From TrEMBL:
A Pfam family that the UniProt record links to this protein: Synaphin
Family: Belongs to the complexin/synaphin family.
Presence of the UniProt keyword Transmembrane in the record: no
Database matches in Gene3D superfamilies: Single Helix bin
Name listed for the protein in its UniProt record: Complexin 4b
Cellular component terms (Gene Ontology): SNARE complex; terminal bouton
Coiled-coil positions: none
């Protein structure tokens, strides 16, 4: 019995090839899905967000074969210096004398106002 102009052997070979291609696509999809789950886990760890059971399950199903691409790891790690900088700025703000800061801001404002008045005689 022929199917769409193919002999039975050709049709069986075609079916076999289609099943193999589907298995390859499914394996690639599972790998990509596990990589994304691993990346989300890294981001959750970095930003101290709650863990996701679904991501943990996906990563476990993939086993140790999951490797997050280097570019994505660099993107995740690239934010670390900014966080350290933010923490140091916050620490400096906490250590700063508020009265001294107010005085400096007021002096800067008065200085800018006087320079503006010198340059603008319309007012």
């Amino acid at each position: 019995m022929a199917h769409d102009g193919m002999s039975r052997e050709e049709y069986e070979e075609y079916q076999k090839q289609m099943v193999e291609e589907k298995m390859e696509r499914d394996a690639e999809f599972a790998t990509k899905k596990a990589e994304r789950a691993c990346l989300r886990t890294c981001l959750r760890d970095k930003y101290r967000l709650p863990k996701s059971e679904q991501d943990d399950i996906t990563t476990q199903q993939a086993g140790d074969d999951v490797d997050v691409p280097e570019e994505l790891i660099k993107m995740v790690d690239g934010d670390a210096p900014q966080e350290e900088e933010k923490e140091s700025i916050m620490q400096n703000l906490q250590n700063m004398d508020v009265d001294q800061l107010k005085e400096k801001a007021q002096a800067t404002f008065v200085e800018m106002k006087s320079k503006a008045e010198e340059k603008c005689t319309v007012v």
